[in-house]
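EI: anyone free to look at a 107-residue chain?
SC: sure, send it
EI:
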Amino acid sequence: LDILVTTFNAKLKADLPDSAIVLNVDAYSASKDEVANKAKYNLQDVTNTACSLPLATSSSLTCNASNLNPLVNPNTAVFADKVHPTPYGHLLFATYVLQAMTNKGWY
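SC: here you go
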């Protein structure tokens, strides 16, 4: 999966490079950096999911206060389920995008 995502992202960036009207932001690399450097992002848990869901319905769409993982603080964890970020994870990505936009002079 890692090779697939990084190859796709490299091809996209090569075919649609940053310009005056294009800004590439890489959610995959940002997420990997959060996992590798959790203290930098005030994360305490980058491996467990904030939601305790049965495997058959393991989607953050059904996550709510009644099925949170009691061992994981959703305010300091990055993953709600195996794929999707917690609200804090979304905030981290939004901050990343805003910083990229600011660096480009768009904000």
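EI: The mean pLDDT is 91.
SC: 👍
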